[in-house]
Amino acid sequence: MQPIPANAPVIEFRDVAYALPNGQPLLRDLNLQVQRGETLVLLGRSGSGKTTTLKLVNRLLNPSGGGVWVNGAPNQETDVICLRRSVGYVIQDVGLFPHFTVERNIGLVPRIEGWPTDRIHLRVQELLQIVGLGREIASRYPYQLSGGQRQRVGVARALAADPSILLMDEPFGALDALTRDQLQREFLLLQERLNKTVVFVTHDLREALRLGSRIALMEAGQLVAVLPPQDFLRSTDPLAAAYVQAFGEGLNSVATRGSE
């Protein structure tokens, strides 16, 4: 994809709608921009449209109305294979191939892109270090890893071909509290180092406040508000205020992104 001006959005939703084949609307009138290098968190309850929005970026779904622009071009006009290879995608259950070693899983997209074997090997070793895993992990299979290790491998695989965009769909949601906290810390360090454009789905306000540059609050397929973490805490919007009340005290200390 072609480079775009630094001040232009990397991802843009223009009047986007999405409906199921039976006509049931899941998204309506979505207008949203994601800027270069930011982590935009999509926050909302189950069924609010978060994952649907995410999947429209890499064309796992196609809009019923409006359009999605990626790197300055309508993604409907971009070859879908090229689009997906240029966008990293991390999901909650990781989706590693069980019959592939960690090295083969991480090196999948570079291998498809025709990278030479020695370059793939070096890239895998580099990424294992970046996500906090030892080199000995490379020869193991997914079933030999803990949940946190598998999630790290999933992040490494998404970064393998150095995409500028990273889509993350509740990547830490299935992990225990301590592992989730550790991976959130590592994500902040990783983002500080790599400066990717990230769209991150969660239903957890604390996670949104901790990781997001901005929080896009969704409800019933519509965008309610888009706010930086500290502004979200002070918002008079009824739904935002309900989230703050539900999650209780101590949110201000969480909302200072990257302070840990």
Short structural summary:
The chain is an alpha/beta fold and 260 residues long. It has helices spanning 50-57, 80-85, 102-106, 108-112, 117-130, 147-159, 177-194, 205-211, 229-234, 238-247, 251-254; strands at 11-19, 25-34, 39-43, 65-70, 73-74, 87-91, 165-169, 197-202, 214-219, 222-227.
* Number of discrete helical segments: 11
Q: What are the segments in which pLDDT stays under 50 over at least 5 consecutive residues?
A: none
**Name of the level-1 CATH class of the largest domain:** Alpha Beta
Q: How large, in whole angstroms, is the Cα Rg?
A: 18 Å
Give me the side-by-side strand order of the main sheet.
6-7-8-3-9-10
Give the termini distance in whole angstroms: 35 Å
CATH homologous superfamily grouping of the largest domain: P-loop containing nucleotide triphosphate hydrolases
Give the proportion of residues in helices: 25-40%
Order of helices and strands: EEEHEEHEHHHHEHEHEEHHH
Which of globular, elongated, flat, extended, rod-shaped describes the shape? globular
Describe the main β-sheet briefly.
6 strands, mixed
